[in-house]
Design a protein that fits this description.
about 325 residues; mainly alpha; 16 helices; globular
């Protein structure tokens, strides 16, 4: 590529920061991959629906890659079409649920072999009680975006709820529901002495970010620097708060896969994952840690089946896609 050799293989292995920075900067200078044809970008590429799909694809891709599958996923609509990576992900979410004897390992040349894998993906989804109305294995093979996103959302949600359930000290092995997560968040904020409340995961008042900042402050009192928080009235103020929320959550060690826009636009799916990630991080903390809450965690978690507005989750929404 015509780049100077700033470092050796040994330098890369040892992780020399200055040499690595110089090397990467030199590559960027020679081959930055940036296009100067900005005026030729079609307006159609930035339609709202496409932007929403792109954001969700990114979130699910990051989540799947975080699980440590055998192959890195660059695009869920293309890389999942043979069904293999979906089977790997299902096996990580629910170990032992995949029948590997009938699975076809890549490279797969025959199309019907891909369909066989994807049919097993759909079959397992039904075992896990996903809402899979009008979804068949061939839809995944064909790269149907909406149906793939609907499946991935339910798979991601299943993983989050399973992680929370596995914290048996707090859940006593009971099934965790969306209502439990909502109740837990409201309890933490209420016990911290503030009046904010989340009525559901699609509550439009969440767009200013104040509730989540108060939730983060409740679970870790020193986490939020309130001098950096805006009133969240104007759009730019909401985005600043949203960016700060993501930054704090990541700093605490929460697994975060959403973007600031998901918060400002109150994306119900991503709001749920954010709340659940904060809850999971909090419940993993040592029991003897000084927690601000006056109510025990087990009291805020139940196997409630209340017909709460919070349980109007995306399962119903996805079933109607």
């Amino acid at each position: 590529m015509g780049c100077k050799r700033y470092l050796t293989a040994k330098d890369i292995v040892e992780g020399s920061p200055n040499l690595n920075l110089a090397f990467v900067a030199h590559i960027f200078q020679h081959r930055n991959g940036l296009s100067t044809q900005t005026k030729q970008i079609s307006f159609l590429e930035t339609l709202p629906d496409d932007a929403q799909i792109s954001r969700e694809e990114r979130a699910f891709r990051f989540w799947m890659n975080s699980l440590g599958n055998s192959t890195y996923i660059d695009n869920v609509f293309e890389d999942l079409r043979n069904g293999w990576l979906l089977l790997e992900t299902l096996d990580k979410v629910s170990p032992g649920i995949v029948n590997w004897k009938v699975a076809n390992k890549p490279p797969i040349k025959l199309p019907f072999r891909k369909v066989e894998n994807c049919n097993q993906v759909v079959k397992i989804g039904k075992q896990l009680k996903f809402s899979l109305v009008n979804i068949a294995g061939n839809d995944i093979v064909q790269g149907n975006k909406k149906l793939i996103l609907a499946y991935l959302w339910q798979l991601m949600r299943c993983n989050i709820l399973q992680l929370l359930k596995n914290l048996r000290f707090h859940s006593h092995g009971k099934e965790i529901t969306d209502v439990d997560i909502l109740r837990w968040a409201n309890t933490q904020v209420s016990n911290s002495g503030t009046q904010s409340r989340m009525n559901s995961f699609k509550d439009k008042s969440l767009s200013d970010g104040i509730f989540f900042l108060e939730l983060l402050s409740a679970v870790q009192p020193r986490a939020v620097n309130w001098s950096l928080v805006t009133k969240g009235v104007a759009d730019d103020e909401k985005k600043m708060n949203a960016t700060y929320i993501i930054s704090i959550a990541r700093k605490l060690g929460c697994s975060i896969f959403l973007l600031p826009e998901d918060l400002t636009e109150v994306n119900q799916k991503m709001i749920l994952t954010l709340t659940a990630s904060i809850m999971y991080w909090y419940l993993k903390q040592p029991v003897d840690q000084d927690k601000p809450s006056g109510t025990s965690d087990s009291e805020t978690i139940s196997n409630s089946t209340l017909d709460d507005s919070a349980s109007e989750s995306s399962i119903e929404e996805n079933g109607n896609l």
